[in-house]
Amino acid sequence: MRRRALRAVMGLAVLFCLLTLGGNEDGNRELRTYRNTPQTFRIAMSVAYTKDHSYDRFGSPDVVREGEDGMYEIRYISDGSRLITLYDTTGRIVDEWRLKRLLERRDFCAIIPGTHGVSGGGKNRSVLASNSNSS
Fold this sequence. Notes:
It is a single chain. Helices cover 33% and strands 17% of the residues. By secondary structure, it is of the alpha+beta class. A four-stranded antiparallel sheet has the order 1-2-3-4, with helices on one face. A hairpin with a 5-residue loop joins strand 3 and strand 4.
């Protein structure tokens, strides 16, 4: 019991250090590796960020859009990338992505349903075809 409690405290201490320490010489916080982690993994890690965490880490958003299912914010990062943060209706972060450019409709048109990749290149194999060949 004592060992389990010690491990829990050490785990929380490591998580605290990872989330609070860091930054570059300008004092700006660097984007951590959890930025593209889906909410299900963050829940499993007991890390569920809210809108306040985003403001604390990256400041005010440049673009804010609200809808029935929640809202999203876009922040322009100094390296030219954009940080897109999606929230649910309670203000919890659902997803957070950092992109060098915003995706366009043609990016999604290149996706072929039932395959492992995108069109163009001829190396894509259908999931159904590969499963039927193995039987």
